[in-house]
Specification:
Layout: H1 2-23, H2 32-39, H3 43-46, H4 55-67, H5 71-87, H6 93-102
Length: 121
């Protein structure tokens, strides 16, 4: 009887461990909820209120750039940035396009509300 209980316990532990491995398998490294707050400080630059992006804004651009490791990451970040940009009522397309350069943090894709993010290699 003791041997049977030990085997059942071992089997249960293996099943639980396998289930936890499946549940904790990584999905995406980040989401749009991670990108948007990093760009919140850029709104005054993107809308033309400020002539230069703030240090906080540029820090956010740097963090977003760091998220762009794989092709999927770059495409996701690109789409997130487009989504954020479309929410700003008064946006200067030239400011959007120049943001990474103005922050001295070029992104691996152009920023534009009309750019096809799925074309990123």
């Amino acid at each position: 009887m003791m041997k049977t209980q030990g085997m059942v316990t071992s089997v249960l532990l293996v099943v639980v461990a396998a289930h936890l491995m499946i549940m904790t398998e990584p999905t995406e490294a980040f989401t749009c909820l991670d990108v948007a707050p990093n760009l919140a400080a850029c709104i005054s630059y993107l809308s033309g209120i400020d002539s230069r992006p703030s240090q906080i804004c540029c820090g956010g651009v740097t963090r977003v750039r760091g998220m762009c490791v794989t092709t999927d990451d770059r495409r996701l970040a690109c789409n997130c940035i487009k989504e954020v940009a479309t929410r700003i009522r008064v946006i200067k397309e030239s400011a959007v396009a120049s943001l990474p350069i103005a922050c001295n943090q070029p992104l691996p894709f152009p920023i534009s509300t009309s750019f096809d993010c799925n074309s990123i290699p």
